[in-house]
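wait is this the right file?? whatever heres the structure
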């Protein structure tokens, strides 16, 4: 290896001028997640911290117990170092299963540096929404089909949102592994919850809603384990209990989260009962 190239831990080598840029960015107290331009292109620094998460997690735990919704249980709270380890562990298991994810360029105690996966699916969807609504909806269906493949491989994501997805070699890739739902619930429950979370986004975004929901659900169910489909039916039943209340609140104030909840849960409830 030439002198001016530094071998980064578990990752590709970086020219020394890039190492300086990267180190300067790592020690600066900038945003939690930020892109840094290096000679080889862009990399992303993610700093794990507390994010005031403990309070939210405690509240979510209490709500899950009170409302008897086990699939709402939050992932175990981790220290910043534990979050970095969780991220690395999940990136490794995705890579092992052949699922695209960002490449780890460097990791230190509380921060991790990843390769650039842009554009995200969220960015593609935003572009397609105005230019090609049919392609926009096909991309949503593709995400569900690929989520089903991920589940069939025995994995789950925890928060599969389009802003944390990308496409590489015609496969769907994922980043942002902050959740670990399978630590607090069975894998099939975590997988069903993944689909429900993606459906919250999809149901609101789809240009041709009903057709896209039908195709997307069908694509996921065709690939996903049968146990996850059975769990989704259970989750839908427990969520369905809150539909009347949500609609009532929605008459007074229809926020975005509420709208997503109503659109997704109404569809799934009708689909399982119909
Ligand atoms: N490696 C990466 N390549 C491209 N974009 C990224 C990368 N990492 C993060 N981003 C962008 O930054 C956003 C936030 O990063 P993320 O890891 O999801 O943190 P969080 O959602 O916890 O704030 C992502 O949704 C994505 O748009
Ligand atoms: Mg994210």
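ok assuming it is, sequence goes like this
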């Amino acid at each position: 290896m030439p002198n001016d190239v530094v071998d980064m831990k578990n990752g590709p080598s970086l020219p020394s001028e890039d190492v300086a840029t990267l180190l300067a960015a790592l020690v600066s107290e900038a945003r939690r997640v930020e892109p840094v331009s290096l000679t080889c292109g862009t990399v992303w620094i993610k700093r794990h911290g507390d994010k005031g998460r403990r309070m939210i997690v405690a509240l979510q735990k209490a709500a899950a117990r009170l409302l008897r919704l086990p699939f709402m249980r939050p992932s175990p709270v981790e220290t910043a170092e534990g979050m970095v380890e969780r991220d690395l562990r999940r990136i490794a298991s995705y890579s092992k299963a052949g699922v695209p994810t960002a490449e780890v360029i460097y990791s230190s105690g509380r921060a991790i540096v990843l390769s650039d996966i842009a554009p995200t699916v969220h960015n593609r969807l935003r572009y397609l929404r105005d230019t090609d609504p049919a392609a926009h909806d096909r991309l949503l269906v593709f995400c569900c089909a690929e989520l089903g493949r991920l589940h069939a491989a025995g994995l789950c994501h925890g928060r599969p949102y389009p802003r944390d997805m990308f496409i590489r070699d015609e496969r769907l890739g994922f980043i942002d592994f902050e959740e670990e739902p399978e630590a607090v619930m069975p894998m099939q429950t975590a997988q069903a919850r993944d689909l429900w979370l993606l459906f919250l986004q999809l149901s609101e975004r789809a240009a041709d809603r009903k057709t896209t929901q039908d195709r997307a659900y069908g694509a996921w169910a065709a690939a996903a384990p049968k146990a996850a489909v059975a769990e989704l039916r259970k989750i839908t039943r427990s969520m369905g209990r809150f539909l009347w209340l949500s609609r009532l609140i929605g008459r007074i104030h229809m926020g975005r989260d509420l709208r997503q909840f109503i659109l997704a849960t109404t569809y799934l409830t009708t689909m399982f009962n119909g």
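Residues 169 and 260 are 31 Å apart (CA to CA). so i think its the right one actually
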